[in-house]
């Protein structure tokens, strides 16, 4: 889970909702569970699951995360603030 404070989390989630629309943002742990568990093994925590509607929305969301120095996973790849992208295999 992120090390951001609750206030920062709310502000960040509001920003994501503004970028992609609240209907494309899941924050309820029960609704995000299937996206946080690997097909064969592994699972983790997530503040939110985002479904961007365009490449521009994806880029803006990724930039927002990068500015906050937060990790994110995108279709099996892990992005880290030091700009490495590690394939999860």
Automatic annotation (TrEMBL):
Keyword Oxidoreductase: yes
Catalytic EC class: oxidoreductase
Example of a GO MF term: flavin adenine dinucleotide binding
Keywords annotated in UniProt: Oxidoreductase
InterPro entries: FAD-bd_PCMH-like_sf (IPR036318), FAD-bd_PCMH_sub1 (IPR016167)
The organism's place on the tree of life at top rank: Bacteria
Residue ranges of coiled coil: none
EC number(s) reported in the record: 1.1.1.28
Name of the protein this chain belongs to: D-lactate dehydrogenase
Organism: Escherichia coli
